[in-house]
Amino acid sequence: MAHLESGIKSITVPFSVWNSGITGVSGGLSKGDTLTITGRDFGTGPAFENCLYDSCDGVGTRTVNDAEIGAMTNVENSLSGSPYVSGARDSGNCIRGLVYDTAVNNTEVVRSAVSFTNSQKVYFSYWYKQMPDTFWPDANAGARNSFGTSGSSAKIAWLAYSDATYNFTANNDVIVASHANTSGWSIRGNDTGITIGTTAEMQDWWRFGEWMRITGYFEVDPTDPINNDGRCFVEFITASKAANAVTSLDVPFTMSKTNGNNSPNFWNGLSLFGWYEGGDLTSIGGTAEGDVDHRMDDIYLAWGDSCAATVEIGNNADYDLCTERTLCYAEGPNWWNDSEIKVKVEVGGLDFNSPLFLFIRHDNGYRKMSFPLSTLQGL
């Protein structure tokens, strides 16, 4: 699919629809181009210093610690060689963070963690893929493209208060998403009572061999995080689900559900490729490194006030029917004000030969504005 890597010259599109406050969008639509969005009532976005965005391209001198914005603060890499491989959603690289190591007959991982200032609001999003015809990293998986029958088997992204590297147990943790083969997928704390989304709909987002976007937002009431409801939403996008591409959960949420009424009542870390049940796969046919192959791409994290405010480009005029929706990232320190937003374009898996739409989510996380990009695309 075309991604217009050669660039589009800057033009302004004077258009306003769907009660949108957007009056113009100018710039290019190639990877890394700046888009300037003008209008009204944009509110505020997250502070630039409270953002991390990593395209996972791993080009030049960049490593897992070095992103377009921000950096991973802790990286455990037990793989031999670079974790970057081709096969990303665009034409670039992605992180191969989980493989089977035949030397030790077990799973090896690139576990990356981001530490940030104590916060009671956190938004994060990432794309994830288990490569086709590979094993779940658990000897009880039984077969390729299968989860098997064991208990807890995966904690893909792990939000927590962490007083030590990767020590995310019993520290306000929320896992997005967690898999236990006996009960399927859920959003849950590791050792406490919170469990969100153990319905049939929650189980239907995963697709073996496809890129899937996973997004989480968690906000507690700062006046009384133990007893007063905050809110959280979790969203999954999987291309092959077509009209049911998005599963969205928007539910009340209190800190007491994750920390058993223990302080502190905030988060300060996110671990990616957080934890997996390993095991010797030779009994079920796992004999080569590629027999376990899990990847991650286009990682975005924001924390603090207005962290849920985002700019996205999708492939459907209806936000909920997008089967591809890519986050843009902050252009610089003064990237967002009430009348102008400047972002860098990430092409992801978008097809720029088909109509695309720009979406702004307000600082409370709810979608607020949308805008067609067909004129900017030259369609």
CATH topology of the largest domain: Jelly Rolls
Computed over alpha carbons, the radius of gyration is: 20 Å
Number of strands: 24
Q: What is the oligomeric state here?
A: single chain
Q: Which class of the largest domain in CATH terms?
A: Mainly Beta
Counted up, domains total 2
CATH superfamily of the largest domain: Exo-inulinase, domain 1
Portion of residues in helices?
A: under 10%
Shape: globular
Order of helices and strands: EEEEEEEEEEEEEHEEEHEEEEEEEEH
Mean pLDDT: 80
The secondary structure category is mainly beta
**Second-tier CATH architecture of the largest domain:** Sandwich
For the largest beta-sheet, the strand count, sense and barrel status come to: 15 strands, antiparallel
Task: Compute the separation of the termini in Å.
Answer: 16 Å
Note the beta-strand portion: 35-45%
Low-confidence stretches: 1-19
Individual helix count: 3
Would you kindly provide a written description of the structure presented here, covering whatever features stand out?
This protein is mainly beta and about 375 residues long. It folds into 2 domains: about 10-45 and about 315-375, Immunoglobulin-like, CATH 2.60.40; about 50-305, Exo-inulinase, domain 1 (Jelly Rolls, Sandwich). Helices cover about 5% and strands about 40% of the residues. It contains 3 helices and 24 strands. It has helices spanning about 200-205, 255-260, 375, and strands at about 10, 20-25, 35-40, 50-55, 75, 85, 95-100, 105-120, 120-130, 150-160, 175-180, 185-190, 195, 210-220, 230-240, 245-255, 265-275, 295-305, 310-315, 325, 330, 340-345, 355-360, 365-370. The strands form 3 sheets. The protein has a 15-stranded antiparallel sheet that branches. A 5-stranded antiparallel sheet has the order 1-2-3-22-21, with no helix packed on it. It has a 4-stranded antiparallel sheet with strand order 20-19-23-24, with no helix packed on it. Strand 2 and strand 3 (about 35-40) form a beta hairpin.
